[in-house]
Amino acid sequence: MAFNKNVYFHLFVLVAFIATFYYTANRFRRGGKFSIRPLDAIPKMEEAVGRATEMGRPVHFSYGMGAFDAQYFAAFTLLEYAAGLCAKYDTRLIISIYLPEVVPMTEEVVRKAYTDAGKIESYRPDDIRFWGGSHNPAMIGLISREQVAANFMIGSLFHESILGIEAAARNNAIQVMGTANTHQLPFIAAGCDAIFIGAEMFAAAAHLQPNPVRVGSVFAEDWLTRLMVLLMAIGAVLATFGNTSLSALLKR
Q1: Where does 126-242 show beta strands of DSSP type E?
Q2: Which CATH number applies to 41-207?
Q3: Spans of all domains in the chain
Q4: Which of these, 10, 32, 28, lies nearest to 224 by C-alpha position?
Q5: What is the mean pLDDT of residues 17-42?
Q6: Contact between residue 106 and residue 129 where contact means Cβ atoms under 8 Å apart
Q7: Is the pTM of this model over 0.85?
Q8: Buried (b) or exposed (e) across 126-135, using 16+ Cβ within 10 A?
């Protein structure tokens, strides 16, 4: 079998990611400290729950209508954080769900958050709503009827994010959203008080519940992103002066 000579750079990136991941994960496992850049959306979530508590109105959470992918795992951690805040302040939390397979996971995440807060008696399984194909109209109706004061939509978001923004904005709700779906980022950036942009969801999960895998992944991705930006800058300068050696190298 012949080796594909056009994947040298991809191989380099893969090896660099694995090496950085292994180093940072093991360093964290041995008790090493780590820091993640500040994410404004995390304190904004606490502010939103606090405001909902003061107003005596519920908090709404949705994963959106996307397929079950890696974004859900970050969303589960952020849901647990939101549920923990709601349990702490005795604030009602209502969750809209599109995918049936997510229901038992969501129930366990929320139950654990209330148990950890010592408020298991406040856990309301009826507020975990499975809408299926009726997700969008049901979610809009729920947000309007319950007059939610905080709206969190985090996951694989599509056009339902715009519908949720509009419905919650009529109640002057504080809104925090996050997705890696780039086609929705401009809309949620324009309509929300704070957002998680792409990989920031995973960084937030590592910040809230750090473990070697999460910390290693976040650090490896951050360092490789810096490397790619540096190579782009160097390549742009070289190309300006007619030197295309770097761009030719990256094509291999």
Answers
A1: 128-130, 150-154, 174-179, 194-197
A2: 3.40.50
A3: 41-207
A4: 10
A5: 82
A6: no
A7: no
A8: ebbbbbeeeb
